[in-house]
Amino acid sequence: MNIYKYLWFFGTKPKDSTARLLPSGKSVHVAKNTTLLSAALEDGHDWPHNCKFGSCGECKCKLIKGKIKPMVDFSEALTKEELDDDYILACQSRLTMDCEFEVELGDLIRVPARTCNAKVKSTTMLTSDIMSVTIGTDSDIPEGKDRPGLPGMWAELSVPGLDRPRSYSFASAPQNENKNEFTFFIRKVPGGKFTEWLFSEDRDPEECVTINGPFGSFYLREKETPIVCIAGGSGLAPIKAILEGGVNDQIKRDVIFLFGARTQQDLYSLKEIEEIKNNWNKESSFKFIPVLNMEPEDSDWKGARGMVTDYFEDEVVKKENLNIEGWQAYLCGPPPMVDAAGECLTRNGILEDEIFYDKFTDASNS
Ligand SMILES: Cc1cc2nc3c(=O)[nH]c(=O)nc-3n(C[C@H](O)[C@H](O)[C@H](O)COP(=O)(O)OP(=O)(O)OC[C@H]3O[C@@H](n4cnc5c(N)ncnc54)[C@H](O)[C@@H]3O)c2cc1C
What is the CA(182)–ligand 1 centre distance, in A? Predict the structure, then answer.
């Protein structure tokens, strides 16, 4: 490792610099208070990444020329060989001078991100622990078709004093949002810094919430094959947005949409889902199946029961003798649900490349 490239112990300060990316030859302006990854994503480059706080290692790249200031110890996420080979974590690096990096950019659609100051405008409890949160900003956000972003993407929310921003998926297609508003479905995480603040009764409604986005690669890929969507808990947000987008564009694709929840009280947005179903392209089918795994046996629930992925495999694929080879899948929710769904779908013939997902990781499971 060339330790002279890592200048934190010499006290060299980050400064506004330019990062040249090889082999693409693209350039990114990196402001002194911004990480290399944030600057690249804000510029609309498809830089591979996931956690954004230095633990997954997916944003690693090779420093070819110049010097950076690391914000954490890279050895947590990079191997000794990678460190010796001058690999760095883009999400935890600021630049102290113009630099060159080797990074294989992808071809995903990236939308240039924008940061706005906003406030929590209104909240509505959807279940005992999930709240619909509308964030309003004075910034002028284009409306309708001009609204930037794709259904399924997410934004970073931050409040003063929070250690790092938290990611939240937009719960509506961009076209369906009201002027200068953003809607999210947010689950309260016990002991969670941001959600404990958000759900607290004495929260200052005037507190400034910084919103930065849109980000992410969870959006509908153009194809004509049928789609299976599986959502769990607040993971309904981006799935609902994607399906709203499908209605807006009147796509002609059959959909099976399974929504996993604990009990009837944990189902929400059913009216909106009914509306999506009613407005789905009439040349295609739309089947919605809510599946409950903790509903009391003696309740009045006549619908599907069990784990949502088991239900899909046993009661839909096997019982209906459904061939799902060639289908696309869109999954969102808690990491164990997304992992289980991914395994179930590949086992039943959907190619890994056709399974798209966002896992709602947090500090306890990322
Ligand atoms: C792409 C993406 C999109 C997302 N979209 C949504 C969404 O639409 N809706 C939604 O509800 N959530 C979403 N999430 C999750 C969200 O970003 C937050 O992680 C979640 O709301 C918790 O934030 P918090 O600040 O309340 O909790 P945190 O402060 O992050 O803590 C979470 C939990 O971890 C524990 N913890 C804290 N530090 C540690 C540690 N060092 N080791 C072990 N445990 C620890 C805490 O006690 C708590 O129980 C998304 C996540 C991602 C990655």
Answer: 19
- Please list every protein residue whose CB sits less than 6 Å from any atom of ligand 1: 154, 166-169, 184-187, 189-195, 234, 237, 358, 360-364
d(CA 256, CA 93): 43
User: Which residues make Cβ contacts (< 8 Å) with residue 116, sequence separation at least 6?
Assistant: 137, 139, 141, 210, 211, 212
Taken in order of first residue, the domains within the chain and their CATH numbers are 3-102 (3.10.20.30), 114-215 (2.40.30.10), 227-359 (3.40.50.80)
Measured by CA distance, the residue closest to atom 38 of ligand 1 is 363
**pLDDT at site 306:** 98
Residue ID of nearest Cα to ligand 1 atom 10: 186
Decide: 21 and 11 in contact? Cβ < 8 Å: no
**Other CB atoms closer than 10 Å to residue 102's CB: what's the count?**
14
Give 350-365 pLDDT, tens digit per residue. Answer: 999 999 999 998 888 7
Q: How confident is the model at residue 4 (pLDDT cuts 50, 70, 90)?
A: very low
Global pTM reads 0.84
Query: What digits encode the pLDDT tens for the residues 81-127?
Result: 999 999 999 999 999 999 999 999 988 888 888 999 999 999 999 99
Q: Please name the residues in contact with 193: beta carbons below 8 A apart, sequence gap of 6 or more.
A: 162, 163
Residue written as token pair 């990062």: 19
pLDDT band at residue 42 using 50, 70 and 90 as cut-offs: confident
How many whole angstroms from 322 Cα to the centroid of ligand 1?
36
How many angstroms separate the alpha carbon of residue 142 from the centre of ligand 1?
30
Is the CB of residue 165 less than 8 Å from the CB of residue 51?
no
According to the model, what pLDDT value does residue 362 have? Answer: 87
Q: In whole angstroms, how far apart are CA 284 and each of 103, 156, 236, 244? A: 41, 35, 22, 15
Phi, psi of 323 (to 5 degrees): -95, 110
Compute the distance from residue 211 Cα to the ligand 1 centre, in Å.
16
